[in-house]
Amino acid sequence: MAASKGRDLLLKIWDASGTPAYKSLGGTTECSISIGNEQVDVTNKFSNGNRESLEGAGTTTWSISASGWTDDTAAYNIVKLAAHANTQIKAEIVNGAGDVIECLKWDVTSFEDSGGFNDAEAFSISLESATSVTFTPNGGSASTRAIIDPDA
Q1: Reported pTM
Q2: Which residues, other chains included, contact 49 with Cβ-Cβ below 8 Å and sequence gap of 6+?
Q3: Within 10 A of 125 (CB to CB), how many other CB atoms are there?
């Protein structure tokens, strides 16, 4: 796989106003996504002192964090309002290879605005998946999508 530019990793927020579409979170300078897989421990007295886990069990969580310079784009305002109202948002993240990770329900678990005396106002957000996630490799069609839901 060829290397991708960090600036090509984009967080896009669903904007249902006007012409509904995903809109990039403007001003973003850092963005990351992580996957967490909970392990289910099945260690017993016959495990010879070694931990054993149950494959395919547990909960998968997806987390997104982003930070950057505050702007007044629709996407930024949607995230800010969702954080204040404790409501969920629809978002996707796209990487340099064109892979799309979409989730219809993200919880805004953290939202921070900050600003120094001689600096631009900045933001930092954290999102956690609240339902299954859809992965589409290389921006492919619906037939190449995979619903990632361990409970399915």
Answers
A1: 0.81
A2: none
A3: 25
